[in-house]
Predict the structure.
Amino acid sequence: MAHILAIRFSALGDIAMAIPVLYSFAKHYPQHEVTLLSRPVAGALLAEAPRNVHFIGVDLKQYAGLKGLWRLYEELKKMSFDAVADLHDVIRSKVLRAAFRHAGLPTTHINKGRNAKRALTRRLNKQKVQLTPSTERYLQTFTALGYPFTIDFTSIYGGRKPDTATNTEMPTRKEGEKWIGIAPFAAHKGKIYPLTQMEKVIAMLSKQEKNRIFLFGAGAYEKTWCEKWQSAYEHTESLVGKFKMSNELALMSQMDVMLTMDSANMHLAGLVKTPTVSIWGATHPYAGFSGMPAEGSQQMGSDMDCRPCSIFGNKNCYRKDYACLWSIKPENIVETINAVISSKAEYTETT
C-alpha cells in the first residue's frame, strides 16, 4: 500500500478543481491512500471523502520562511509518505518537494503551461485556443508519478443530496419554489460583474413568481451589499456570515441554478453538481479553469478581441472601461438562468 502526499495550498477554486481527481484516485486505487496538504478552509471539501482520502490543513503563517517550511517537512516526514504530487508548483511547495526528493521519495509537479497562458493573454497576436484544463493537469501529475486513472466523479456527496432536515436554521423549500443562488463577487475586479448591473439581475429575478434568491459571499464588504439587496428585493436572502462552509455547500447543492463569476463558488457548485451560469470578463474558459461544471451549466462572456487579458482577472483593464463585463446585459443573464432552470426541470422529469 502506498501513501501519496498531494500539495495544493491555494486558491480555493484551484483546490476545488483537485477534489474530483482525489476522489477518482481513491476509487481507482482503493488499496492506496492520498492526503491533501492545504489550507484549513479546504477541509470542508473533503468532509465526506472516501476513506482512503485524508486531509491536513496548515496555517502557513505558522510555517513562515525556510525554517518554518523545514519544520513543516519534519512534521510531515513522520507520516511516512511514499511519494509526493505537487499540484501547486510555487516556492513553498517546491521547497517541500525538494526536501522529500532529497530524502529519496519520488516526486512530480504540475505543468501549469505558463508559456501557453502568456500567449493566450498577451495583448497582441493572441493564441486563442483551448488550453489543458486544470483537472487534466492534476491528473497528469499523478500519472507521471506512476498512477494513471480517469476522472470518475459524481459529487462530494457521492451521488446523493445531503440531509439538511436536522438543521433547523437551514431554509426549507416551499412547494413549487425555484431556488437561485447568486455569488456576485470574486477575488479581482476583472472577474466581477458590475454590482449596479447585478442589482438589475436580482430585481428582475425577484419579480418572477416562485423564485427564491440566496446571496453567497464572505466578509464585511460583501455582507453589506448582500444585506442591502436583501432589504430592497422580495424573496431575496443574504447567507453571508450565517453558515459554515459545510452548510453552505449543502445549501448550494439544493439550488436549481447558481449564478457565479469565474470564482471559487463556480467550482464549489460543480462539486455539488448544481448547474451554473458563470460570467467571464477579463478571464476566459480557454485558460483551463472551468473545472467540472454540472450538466446544463452555461458560460457567458463577450466576444472581444482583447479577451482574455488576464489569467486571474487581476490586471487593470487597458481600455479602462471593463467593456467585457458591462456589455453582458442583465436581461440576457436572467434569460439564461431561466433556460437552465427549465432544462433542469425537463431533465429531472425524464430520468
Remarks:
- The CA atoms of residues 5 and 76 lie 9 Å apart.
